[in-house]
Amino acid sequence: MSTVDPQIQAMPVPARRLMLVHAHPDDESSQTGATMAHYAAAGAAVTLVTCTLGELGEVVVPELAHLHADRDDALAPCRLEELTKAMAELGVTDFVRLGGDGRWRDSGMAYDEKRGVVPAKDVHDESFWRADLLEAANELVTVIRDRRPQVLITYDENGHYGHPDHIQAHRVAMYAVSLAGIPSYRKDLGTPWQVQRTLWTAMSESMVRTMITQARAAGESDEFFDSFDLDSDEPPMMSVRDSDIAVRIDGYPYAARRFAALRAHATQIPADEFFFKLQDAPPGPMWEECFRLAGGLPFDGPEADDVFAGLGV
User: Fold this and answer.
1) CA pair distance 124, 130, nearest whole angstrom
2) How many domains are contained in the chain?
3) Please, what is the Cα angle at 151 between 129 and 21, to 5 degrees?
4) Which of 51, 66, 107, 299 has its CA 20 to 30 A from that of 171?
């Protein structure tokens, strides 16, 4: 005889199910916070998979500097607590770490001679960058088959800006999406599930240009902002042509929640961060969270405002 409460058993599964695969705590709030809040508020099932606990993250709070990896190496529990607070702000209740808490460690990063982000020379043996790709993908296959998302969001092949953990998250997510839908593959990992659409996070050229313009108008000085020539025909660093954007989510209605989530990651994001000074900006491109189509069913038109558009859910 079943011991499952029949009321729980009868609870309907949300028709729309979205999964996001991010590298560290805070990545979800800075890149997809408004999207997560938007769909959570609309009743969709939103699942966040975080691949590490960000053990090598910076610590911007002086009194907590002892948590840094080169001292007490005790940042992970703090970042998990921050992640929990951020998810409460976004209204997301389903958030897991790939393989369980601490399965893979933050890999850190270094800079090349052009200030580009590259893997560090000395990477911990248990770092995510050194994870066996199939082993990590199988962990995600289990989650995909259990949650059954129609849409999965992750990074592009460069991890958006070159961080090795972001690149690895991309590789793991793309591999897992393929494996999860194969009926004969690892039946012990759950019932096969085919993700209908895969998206990559992106920053549109128009949004980044707007941000740079507003930063300069506010008198902010930053190596990134100062180095770009607004008269150039090339997209600013870390942005893509607007024509490459497949879907834009208007984050303006959820700006307060997104900023609250960002503030929850207090060890990582300074309270005086320039970004916070833009929170009173009017609606416009700066608030959009943009995505590129990376696989699965295309959108009906050149640009959509719903990640589920055309999927029949």
Assistant:
1) 8
2) 1
3) 20
4) 299
Please state the pTM of the whole predicted model.
Answer: 0.91
In a domain, 224, yes or no: no
Domain that holds residue 138: 14-204+240-296
Q: How far apart are the C-alpha atoms of 251 and 262, rounded to whole Å?
A: 14
Q: Residue 107 has what DSSP assignment?
A: -
Asked whether residue 227 is domain-assigned, the answer is: no
**Going by C-beta distance under 8 Å and a sequence separation of 6 or more, which residues neighbour residue 39?**
16, 18, 46, 307
Q: Is residue 222 part of a domain?
A: no
Backbone phi, then psi, for 247, in 5-degree steps?
Answer: -150, 140
Q: Looking at the domain assignment, is residue 85 inside a domain?
A: yes
Per-residue pLDDT of the chain (313 residues), as tens digits, is 344 454 445 557 899 999 999 999 999 999 999 999 999 999 999 999 999 999 999 899 999 999 998 899 999 999 999 999 999 999 999 999 999 999 999 998 887 776 678 788 888 899 999 999 999 999 999 999 999 999 999 999 999 888 999 999 999 999 999 999 999 999 999 999 999 999 999 998 888 888 777 777 766 655 556 667 777 888 877 889 989 999 999 999 999 999 999 999 999 998 877 667 777 778 887 889 999 999 999 999 888 999 999 999 9
Concatenated DSSP letters of 259-280: HHHHHH-TTTS-TT-GGGGGTT
Residue 283: give its domain's CATH number. Answer: 3.40.50.10320
